[in-house]
Design goal:
This protein has 499 residues and is an alpha/beta fold. It is 38% helix and 19% strand. The protein has a seven-stranded mixed beta sheet, with helices on both faces. The structure holds nicotinamide-adenine-dinucleotide (NAD).
Length: 499
């Protein structure tokens, strides 16, 4: 399908695509596909005020009724799955199956949030005072800013929005300046759900388009109590302290440097399949992409040989073709950063397999690369840095303690995994003395999480949690209630204060 056809199918009008200042390029062939209108910074106070107004109404709507809006969003997403997936492919360069997978993730989180809308409950707590009852109540917190990265241009918005809406919070979305079209297409779908819902307050879900300055207006506003920001550690280091300085609540989902330990007992064929998917899928542009392989010295050479063989036959090319497994990088800057990381790895003593630019058999104008494997003598600075490209660094180890120490010895703490058939090793890896990441898997790669679990990581990954489990609590304020139904007024801790 041509770019124009894909945009038309997703409901774009000529007015949506022209007359603005933000040029949008498709990574498939570098073509300019739109010039979209950016939000004027001067309009941000009014946008935030509208969100606050919407909050006053939305917080009093019963949560199961709020869930109905999210149910309708899920229905609309089901109906528009192919069209939205195609825009993800067009604008982020994901292969068709991964573009559709991203929309499926949106549908899944809607289903989760609909159920959640009838399960927002707190504890009842034993009181030390007779005739007293203690409990906690969860209330909506207020407008939630959602700042998203280019590589999951729609799923991350839905993780936040589906939860925020059932929790009673309006949403203001600032997508990556590299992917405004997927955001606009998602808003068209949201508008359809809002229309069917009928009486949602105006401004409940808003979209603002632009770069960091527009994001900063949300980051610095005391009227925006929650700022969920997904992107690089560099961005999080700016956003986190600024939100904290005004006592807002940041939810940070930042860079990862994810590892797999492969133990001597591992099922190597299964490990190879998991490695290739997680290192090469999305052209290595997932926050959870596999970047470091820590293989036991007894199997390392064998594993690398199998991987080099598997990599040699990977189809790199147009992400719209059903046979392609590796699409383009987001832009030429990403390819340059990959090349310079490989150059540095070489200078640190690394042996590189693959990693060359691909120019034939691919659409001209895109940044296509062969995924690379870099056998490293040690965990150097380059290995400890997240390069957002398909580079897999390989290290060896002798005992599990050493492997876990290597796995943890990076600034980031997002995702990790071990391939082993040894139960002691698997449990040690997931124990308090094991992986220090937010995600630790056994016999599964580090990427491709399901929405049921809380998603996020430690250290420079930012500590935020989104999606499943009790991540919803970050979108609400907790109130502790003590009710005295006795005729006495006893004080806690035995304090006497007779008047
Ligand atoms: P980026 O940091 O360049 O941009 C992310 C978003 O932050 C964009 O919308 C951008 O406009 C905005 N932004 C940048 N500076 C800002 C500022 N000062 N104030 C407010 N907003 C600002 O990241 P990217 O290149 O789009 O995405 C890739 C990165 O995102 C990788 O590091 C990847 O690991 C990370 N990521 C993390 C997760 C996660 O869940 N942990 C998910 C996806 C991507």
């Amino acid at each position: 399908m041509s770019h124009a056809d894909a945009l038309k199918a997703a409901g774009f009008t000529e007015r949506d695509l022209a007359g603005g200042t933000l040029a949008v390029h498709s990574p498939i062939d570098g073509a300019e596909v739109a010039r979209v209108r950016e939000t004027d910074s001067a309009d941000m106070p009014a946008i935030i005020a509208k969100s606050q107004e919407a909050f006053k109404a939305w917080r009093t709507v019963p949560a199961p009724r709020r869930g109905e809006l999210v149910r309708l969003l899920g229905e609309e997403l089901r109906a528009a799955k192919e069209e939205l997936g195609a825009v993800v492919t067009l604008e982020a360069g994901k292969i068709t199956s991964e573009g559709l997978g991203e929309v499926q993730e949106m549908i899944d989180i809607c289903d989760f949030a609909v159920g959640l809308s009838r399960q927002i409950y707190g504890l009842t707590i034993a009181s030390e005072r007779p005739g007293h009852r203690m409990m906690e109540t969860w209330h909506p917190l207020g407008p939630c800013a959602v700042i998203t990265a280019f590589n999951f241009p729609v799923a991350v918005w839905s993780w936040n929005t589906a939860l925020a809406l059932v929790c009673g919070d309006p949403v203001i979305w600032k997508p990556s300046e590299k992917t405004p079209l997927t955001a606009m297409a998602s808003m068209k779908i949201m508008e359809r759900a809002l229309k069917r819902f009928g009486d949602a307050p105006e401004g409940l879900v808003q979209l603002v388009i632009g770069g960091p300055a527009i994001g900063e207006a949300l980051v610095d506003s005391r009227e925006v109590p929650i700022v969920s920001a997904t992107g690089s550690t560099r961005m999080g280091a700016i956003v986190g302290p600024r939100v904290a300085a005004r006592f807002g609540r940041p939810i940070l989902e930042l860079g990862g440097n994810n590892a797999m330990i492969v133990a001597p007992s591992a099922d190597l064929d299964m490990a190879v399949r998991a490695i290739v998917f997680s290192a090469v899928g999305t052209a290595g542009q997932r926050c959870t992409s596999l970047r470091r392989l820590i293989a036991h010295n007894s199997i390392r050479d064998d594993l690398v040989a199998k991987l080099v063989k598997a990599y040699a036959s990977l189809p790199v090319g147009d992400p719209r073709k059903s046979t392609t497994l590796v699409g383009p990088l987001i832009d030429h800057g990403a390819r340059d950063r990959m090349q310079s990381a490989l150059e540095k790895a070489r200078s640190e003593g690394g042996t590189i397999h693959g990693g060359r630019t691909v120019a034939s058999g691919v659409p001209q104008g895109g940044a296509y690369v062969e995924p690379a494997i870099a056998e490293m003598p040690a965990q150097t600075d380059t290995v400890r840095t997240e390069t957002f490209a398909p580079i897999l660094y390989v290290l060896g180890y002798e005992d599990l303690e050493e492997a876990i120490a290597l796995q943890n010895d990076v600034p980031q703490g997002l995702s990790s995994c071990i391939f082993t058939l040894n139960m002691r090793e698997a449990e040690t890896f997931m124990s308090a003395a094991g992986s220090d990441c937010g995600i630790a898997n056994v016999n599964i790669g580090p990427s491709g999480a399901e929405i049921g679990g809380a998603f996020g990581g430690e250290k420079e990954t930012g500590g935020g949690r989104e999606s499943g489990s009790d991540a919803w609590k970050a979108y609400m304020r907790r109130q502790t209630n003590t009710v005295n139904y006795s005729a006495e007024l006893p004080l806690a801790q035995g304090v006497k204060f007779d008047i």
